Amino acid sequence: MGQKLRRDRCMGDNLRRLRLQSAISQEKLCAELQRRGCDIGRTVYEKYETGELNIRISVLIELRKIYGCTFDDFFEGLDHEEKK
Predict the structure, then answer these.
(1) Domain 12-71, what fold?
(2) Whole-number Å distance between alpha carbons of 84 and 70
(3) How far is it, in rounded angstroms, from Cα 21 to Cα 9?
(4) Exposure b/e, 21-42, CB count within 10 A at least 16 = b
(5) Any idea where the domains of the chain sit in the sequence?
(6) Which of 8, 28, 33, 66 has the CB geometry, 3.0–4.6 Å to 38, for a possible disulfide?
């Protein structure tokens, strides 16, 4: 059974930003994810970006490798705690 993140905050904007910074379409990204063993279609990935679906940890791991980013990049701006 795959792990999922709770959908209490949406990282969709960060997923979209990272994809656009890499100049890759959703279709090409999904093809690369499938090549790496993640069975993800474009409509499912689109729902990750809109926050309609929880993203699997295994997909985040592969996205980190594709984008050459850190896991922190996926969570950027999601910490809404006020600093004192």
Answers:
(1) 434 Repressor (Amino-terminal Domain) (1.10.260)
(2) 27
(3) 22
(4) eeebebeebbebbeeeebebee
(5) 12-71
(6) 33
Chain segment 17-74, per-residue pLDDT in tens = 999 999 999 999 999 999 999 999 999 999 999 989 889 999 999 999 999 999 999 9
Name the nearest CA neighbour of 24 among 10, 42, 44, 5.
42
Long-range contacts of 37-43 (CB under 8 A, 24+ apart): 37/62, 38/62
Contact in structure between 11 and 74 (CB atoms under 8 Å): yes
CB 25 within 8 A of CB 31: no
Beta bridge partners of 4: 56
Smallest Cα–Cα separation from 32: which of 62, 70, 76?
A: 62
SS3 4: strand
